[in-house]
Amino acid sequence: MNKSTDQGNRKRILTIIKLVPTGRVATYGQIAHLAGLPNNARQVGSILKSFSGPNIPWFRIVNSKGEISQRRNESSQSMQRDILEGEGVRFTESNRVDLSQYLWKPC
Q: pTM of the prediction?
């Protein structure tokens, strides 16, 4: 992919992430699919890993098991959970979000 394509994909992914409403989560794969990039869940993760910008609810993105993905910085994992719980998202005893209850279902 060229730099222009990468920037376009990044913009589409971030645009979709902005749509995830308060109290809901989306998966990396779901965001990739909605951005027209099926099978590119890792690209979503890469973009979020290197992302540092306002107004993007990065914390609402979880893996396909409903888990907060492992990061080098454990404090960001804790912060992600705290923010989600503050929005009313509850975690199971196995530290997962119940996707049947909290997964964002866009029209």
A: 0.90
